[in-house]
Structure prediction request, 153 residues.
Amino acid sequence: MKYRKGNLDDCKAIYSLVCDMENKELSYDRFFAIYRDQVSDCHYYCLVCEEDGTVFGVLNMRFEAQLHHAEQIAEILEFAVANTCRNKGIGKEMFFQSCQIAKNNGCSQIEVACNQLRKNTHRFYMREGMQNFHYKFSKQLFDESIQQNAIGK
Prediction:
């Protein structure tokens, strides 16, 4: 397995991994526009895992100076490994490398928000030394009738 910074050629593979993670089909045009902007922005880093030209994992993060920390913080935005490649150490290695990349970008901490329904993912993050110190709240701005927490909506 090879770990490297993602590029525009990886977009379709990353799109597939993220759609699988979210259990829904996202707008590819919108996804591509956002990914294109992030690839050229130094505040984002998209780490991919590939073998023989096939992308099996993605960890996308943002670097941001936060007032309430008075520090640069890394936030994992998306993290997905193909179903066929799980439990083989790829996620562990990607997480380790993301921590090193964050340190190299001056970050003092790495954070992630994770859906409450993803119990296996919670266990993974805790095994990797992360602590659950925060709650994350969200509100729909266009369809306030959505009140339930569901993956794939």
